[in-house]
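Thread title: Can someone regenerate the structure for this chain?

I was given the following input by a collaborator and told the matching structure tokens would be attached. They weren't. Posting the sequence so someone can regenerate them.
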Amino acid sequence: MNNNSTLFIYLDPFGLKGCDFELIKSVLERGNLASTEVLINLSMPIFHRLAAQKGVTDGKAASSRIRSFHRILDKVFGGGYGATFLLTRH
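Best answer:
Regenerated them for you:
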């Protein structure tokens, strides 16, 4: 990939499996010599389901299932804030 060329990537994954932020991080960090655009088409309902807002509100955030869901969100969003972001949005 030439770092001086404009790059547009369209991702339309089926689900979140293999949609880790680390996979596109290098593309996003390629520098500012040319335009880099990434469009990712994701289903918002799955994010809200994985955030498990009702379970967190009911005090079950420490359950292994909800922690597993939140780890998936952390991988997709590239940090430990994925579920927190979704839980603060209504």
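The chain has one domain: 7-88.
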